[in-house]
Amino acid sequence: MTSEQRFQRHDMDAILGGRRMRRNRRADWTRRLVRETVLTVDDLIWPIFLVDGDGVRQPVPSMPGVERYSVDQAVIEAEKAAALGIPAIALFPFTEPTLRDLSGSESLNPDNLVCRACRAIKAAVPEIGLITDVALDPYTSHGHDGVMDGHVILNDESVALLVRQALNQAAAGADVIAPSDMMDGRVGAIRDSLDTAGFDDVQIMAYSAKYASAFYGPFRDAIGTSKTLVGDKRTYQMDFANSDEALREVELDIAEGADMIMVKPGLPYLDIVRRVKDNFAMPTFAYQVSGEYAMIRAAEQNGWIDGERAMVESLWAFKRAGADGILTYFAPFVAPLLKR
Ligand code: PBG
Asked: Relative to the CA of 307, which of 8, 167, 247, 321 has its CA 20 to 30 Å away?
């Protein structure tokens, strides 16, 4: 040993004083023992896209591995999801363009795609939780989540329609109503109307802190609004520069009767997930949105990252940040790898 090496070793002992963090990491058994968080299938909610027809499975090009399903195929997929132990699925329709109009009236049709899917899935797979999105964007010709007057998205007029949409979904068998529209007061109005109509068991998962995000791009391809959207959604979705404001949004939604809280998008907003969980101790969910899914798939397809490992790591990060569960398009891909 040269005097130089001896010096470095003695120096490290003095610095560490016997404290070596790597001891607990030296083998798989000890890493498992000291692991702080766990990801299981119980943490997963699978968002699926619906399309009209029979026997139809349409790949979504900007979301490799994701397809739109006609109702019969969605039933098959719900059966598979239940068999994998996935607790719940969330439904999103691609509405035929001819059915879209200025006020999104198809959202109130008791036989619209989402309602038909609810009834079929409830009948075939009663054990899986059914979450339906409340917002007008899949049904409006302008792609906005509410009704428009000139370039203004009207709040109270939109809430009146969103309430009727929520009742329509509850009547079709939805277990959880998930308002994603970001209008003020919609959670309270929906809770009130559900209770009055006898749906007091129907839960509300509020998209409370939903940001105006570029990461929704592939989703808008999937439901067919990316080319039709007029302007952007920044007068109702949140500014990505803000964090305190998210806490105020969450506080209001809890006061209005939300059973569960959601933060969206996911990975770039884990600081918000942590603050929400620490401040309110509510069941807190995060949505790993379409653009986040697409980025991992695209890098995987280019051979730039190990897609499977990136998928698992990204989902685990949500748990570490305090999320109770994750809405993720990876659900059917990750579930077989996880313990129940
Ligand atoms: C619409 C809605 C959006 C998403 C869920 N519900 C898009 C938007 O607000 O434009 C995004 C989901 C995703 O990107 O995966 N109310």
From this structure: 321
